[in-house]
Design brief:
By secondary structure, the protein is mostly beta strands. It is built from 1 helix and 10 strands, in the order αββββββββββ. Strands 1-2-3-4-5-6-7-8-9-10 form a 10-stranded antiparallel beta barrel. A hairpin with a 6-residue loop joins β2 and β3. It is globular and about 45 Å long. It starts with a helix and ends with a strand.
């Protein structure tokens, strides 16, 4: 069996657990609602096809570390990537810190934004963070199942800490899961690893 056949079979098996789930929605909007399940709602815009494997709701755990924090720290995250049929994807990530037993200590970082694919398969990712940071990433697919990007611009509010740049890599792992790593340059430190998370699909 080819790797393509393996991926299709893995997707079929995963779908038995996730295909009936989607984002909670109000059903009285006069416009199409977002969907994180490609079997429901509006058709994915053709310009978003290179990002298709990212669409869904993902949950998992990972680690956050940096010279300026008492770490490494264990964290959990939920990542939602959805669409409404237009040529962009909605992005929301919510994280929370865990203790050594996996119990929740407190909520952690939140971010929302938009993946904006371009005709040449490159993309922009605009992210707004609850910490007062706004970032514009430019990126390209490394292959059909991984996407790499780096900031072109970082804007911060008067009360936010100094951030000068970031890099991210998202990629499918073991055909059905999603891995994510981030490097950051902030508070006087050079670019270096900051976050790594391993996520399992729960919707889509």
């Amino acid at each position: 069996m080819s790797s393509g056949d393996d991926a299709i079979q893995a997707a079929v098996e995963r779908a038995e657990r996730t295909r009936a789930r989607n984002l909670p929605q109000f059903d009285d909007l006069p416009i199409p609602a977002d969907t994180a399940n490609l079997r429901e709602g509006p058709e994915l815009h053709e310009q978003c096809v290179p990002l298709l494997p990212l669409v869904g709701v993902w949950r998992g755990e990972g680690e956050v570390n940096y010279p300026t924090i008492d770490g490494p720290r264990r964290l959990a995250q939920q990542l939602t990537i959805a669409h409404d049929g237009r040529p962009f994807l909605y992005h929301e990530a919510r994280s929370w810190l865990l203790d050594e037993n996996g119990e929740v200590i407190r909520p952690a970082a939140r971010e929302t934004g938009w993946w904006r694919p371009q005709p040449d398969d490159s993309f922009e990712l605009l992210l707004t963070h609850n910490t007062g940071i706004i970032e514009l990433f430019y990126g390209e697919p490394r292959n059909l199942t991984s996407w790499e990007m780096a900031t072109d611009a970082v804007v911060r509010s008067k009360s936010a800490k100094e951030v000068t740049g970031a890099k991210r890599l998202y990629g499918l792992v073991n055909k059905t899961d999603l891995g994510y790593v981030e490097e950051r340059a902030m508070v006087g430190q050079e670019m270096q690893p900051h976050v790594s998370v391993y996520l399992h699909r729960v919707v889509g």
